[in-house]
Amino acid sequence: MIDFELTEEHKILRDSVRQWAEGVKDRIVELDRKHETDPEILYDMGRQGFLGICIPEKYGGAGMDYISLAILCEELERVDTSLRVPISVHVGLNSLTLLQWANEEQKQKYLIPQAEGKKLAAFGLTEPNAGSDAKNIQTTAVKEGDYYIINGSKAWISLGDTADHIIIFARTGPKELGHKSISAFIIERGYKGFSSQKIKGKLGVRAGDTSMMYFHDMAVPAENLLGEEGEGFKIAMSALDNGRYTVGAGSVGLAKAAMDEAINYAKTRIAFGKPIAEFQLIQQKIAYMVRGIESAELLIWKAGWMKNKGYRNTKETSLAKWHATDIAMEVADMALQIFGAYGYSDEYPIERFFRNARGARIYEGTAEIHQLIQASYALGYRKDKPLRKELPPWPFPDDV
Ligand SMILES: Cc1cc2nc3c(=O)[nH]c(=O)nc-3n(C[C@H](O)[C@H](O)[C@H](O)COP(=O)(O)OP(=O)(O)OC[C@H]3O[C@@H](n4cnc5c(N)ncnc54)[C@H](O)[C@@H]3O)c2cc1C
């Protein structure tokens, strides 16, 4: 059965997140202008329960479903992308990955404080010389007694200068083994040999922390290996199935907000003696916005429905993320055009939406990588293999 009706719980969540996000809007706009971040906003998100949204209650979360996760992301990114990014990395890429792959001790130690919002989490895969080609990472982890000694660096890590816990990926074997020598680790900011530095001068997500991370002879306890040695690449890809979903859902929110602004403006801006909304070329833009947003939302909901069912959704999530992020960019661009010169100034939020939409076509799989994924599924060159650990259907059973 397919059901497009939101539950009462979903509606309450949507309204309360919208209210909270509207409440921090002025602060976020100010931070964006100054290129500054404020971790207190993230801790407040934790107090609101956002950081444990779909993590089971037994691990400190709110126990909600994947559609709730999409609603949360959509509502946050209606206000600003830097409010949605923490959900993508903390919940999508990190906490859900721990839920899927961590052992019970790791869940107790790391997942619970993350879901309770007491500790912030991030995900470090990209390196200065390995982005799309993630199999090519160069960070190394050498086992010495009860520790792995990690050396290397990570680039462009969201919350990289803020998060307390980070899932990182490093090579535990020869590079010739490709993805089979990549392993995943849970690390803590306080480890000796860890350092980070914010990246300055970004086009978008200016109120968010995007950072470099450096590991210099960083000793990580062997029990912090996530999954098995050599399983890191599979763990990273499964994490992206959740992260990409949150990026796509957030992009729908950004697109809706840009369209709302454009509609309001078009109805009040007078040119040639009438509101510009009455010109058919403006209406055409609004029609394209509606079509794009509706189709993007449907793809997100389909992916969310599959997640709730416990079905593998790599293909569907990739398609939803690719489409939604392209649509957000197109809608922001059309909205800016409707605003004319005013869209080009920070007097209105459109230029911020335009800058923020651009990044989502790069992170969590570039638009090109998603096209390769879709083509390779369609051509039969790519098939999903079962993973050693899969998340069960929602609601998660007690022994998840
Ligand atoms: C704001 C922001 C936040 C980020 N947050 C995180 C994070 O939290 N964690 C993390 O690990 N990473 C993060 N990233 C990094 C992001 O995931 C990478 O930037 C992305 O994977 C692309 O890698 P790259 O920038 O090295 O580009 P490259 O991989 O070098 O690609 C450059 C260009 O070549 C194209 N290209 C590459 N390979 C192919 C191919 N086979 N066929 C066709 N075209 C190709 C790409 O699509 C792109 O257009 C973030 C990036 C940004 C901008």
Write a short abstract of this structure.
The protein has 400 residues and is of the alpha+beta class. Helices cover 50% and strands 14% of the residues.
Care to describe what's here?
- This protein is an alpha+beta fold.
- The protein folds into three domains: 8-120, Orthogonal Bundle (Butyryl-Coa Dehydrogenase, subunit A, domain 1); 122-231, Beta Barrel (Butyryl-CoA Dehydrogenase, subunit A, domain 2); 233-378, Butyryl-CoA Dehydrogenase, subunit A, domain 3 (Up-down Bundle), CATH 1.20.140.10.
- The chain has helices at residues 8-34, 39-47, 66-79, 81-101, 104-115, 232-268, 280-309, 314-339, 350-359, 367-378, and strands at 121-124, 140-144, 147-158, 165-171, 182-188, 194-198, 210-221, 225-226, 270-271, 274-275.
- The strands form three sheets. It has a four-stranded mixed beta sheet with strand order 1-4-5-8.
- Helix 3 (66-79) runs antiparallel to helix 4 (81-101), helix 4 (81-101) runs antiparallel to helix 6 and helix 6 packs parallel to helix 8.
- The longest helix has 37 residues, at 232-268.
- It is globular and about 80 Å long.
- The model has no long low-confidence stretch (mean pLDDT 98).
- Flavin-adenine dinucleotide is lined by residues 89, 123-126, 131-133, 156-158, 205, 210, 359, 362-364, 366, 368-369, 372.
